[in-house]
Amino acid sequence: MPRANGRARFRPATGVNPKDASYPVAMTALDPRDADAAVTDTPATSPAPPDDDTVLGRRYRALTLGIVTVVSLIAFEASAVNTAMPVAARALDGVELYAYAFSAYFTASLFAMALSGEWCDRRGPSAPLFTGIAAFGAGLLVSGSAQRMWLFVGGRAVQGIGGGLVIVALYVVVGRAYPRRLQSAVLASFSAAWVLPVIVGPLAAGTVTEQVGWRWVFLAIPVLVLPPLVVMLPALRALPPGERSAGMDRRRILLALAVAAGAGLLQYAGQDLTWLSLVPAAAGLALLVPCVLRLLPEGTFRAARGLPSVILLRGVAAGAFLGAESFVPLMLVTQRGLSATAAGLSLTGGGLTWALGSWTQSRPRLEPHRERLMGLGMLLIAVSIAAVPLALADSVPVWSVAVAWVLGGYGMGLTISSASVLLLKLSRPEDAGSNSASLQVSDALGNITLVGLSGVLFVAFGGASITETGATASHHPAAFGAVYAAMAAMALVGAWVATRLRSDTR
């Protein structure tokens, strides 16, 4: 494994050429809403298609539709889970584990992304893609049939393994199956695949939850995965083999496994705030800290100017937003008495303005102001998160949460997509792959750490006593207030980090 400044470098996890400066970095932590860069490695063995061919032309139509359908199902599941989760957690008497149903997904996916990259390089993308889809479906079945909350969380972890395998494998498929001129269009379809699920997902999941039961939100999706697999199979079999490495980089996989295990131990310790919990907490830190320091550029955690701050900001932005977003439906259902459908729909506007913010930052005339745009984005996120707990008061209209999330989504679009662009600008061509992988790690760690912190604060301030027949807003507003105050503070930290994005050498 190449090394720089005494630290191990990630090899690119998608099998594309790391010297190509347009290597994709936006689709990280399983969130492809902000895809703004393209894979550009075209296999030398792949013949050039006719000039009039397109991603929906006869040659590529089946593969494109299959890819878009898979991404749409993952997006739909993400939107649906936010809607169904409050009902599921209360029905399983496991509100104290609410946050871990989200963070378990990202913890497992962090390891799976590293494994998938090595697997794709060694065997090609088909095996990890189909294995990942199978694991994703199996996790849905486990969660949908769970009788205890800990088993539900376990199912979410299995889903995370599947999701991590799939998203990396899809990038490899794009890099090997499509010529260079079509790859940008395919990746743009990844972002487009999120729009409809963001709109339809909460409404559909809420209706199913209320009319049939929350379990069917999880149990029905695996059946929908089968048709796109059948459509994609012939095209996947025809993929050129590409260059295969001699063997998997076990060190890289072990580092990712250690990070995931350390994060899992810290989350476990956060469930039980006693002296005994210090043992798994110490073990988790012992695994997590040295491995993370080897996976991220030197200076990341002290916000060194330039690239380290870009990578740090990506994790802070993603984690703060998700740490707050995860608790919005639960707050609206338990504290304001909204239905699961209405609570889920409160997040829809944020998904749409995320895409709008991503489009805004891509305007050429705004390029000289990219760092300021990212600082503005973080401030919008902070204001958005801070405004949400105002709805705990009955005198504040409940629709104010949806308005606040529209603002926060726009800030995320400005920040997340800009971070991807700025990373490439600050990276030497030969470092683009390793720096892109560091961005993925930071994104996943931000989600794991800050969603886990939200869960700890929620339990510490009494949120675990909210059950299906239990407390109302007048009893435990502090549990939600603590979560949003902490995440708003983290967003403000991100706004400060945004002042350090410009490198001293520029």
TrEMBL record:
It comes from the Bacteria. Keywords: Membrane, Transmembrane, Transmembrane helix. The chain crosses the membrane at residues 62-85, 97-115, 127-144, 150-173, 185-204, 216-239, 251-269, 275-297, 309-332, 338-361, 373-392, 398-424, 444-466, 478-498. Residues 1-10 have a biased composition (Basic residues). Its main location: membrane. Pfam families: MFS_1. Residues 1-21, 34-53 are annotated as: Disordered. This is MFS transporter. It comes from Streptomyces hygroscopicus. The lineage of its organism: Bacteria, Bacillati, Actinomycetota, Actinomycetes, Kitasatosporales.
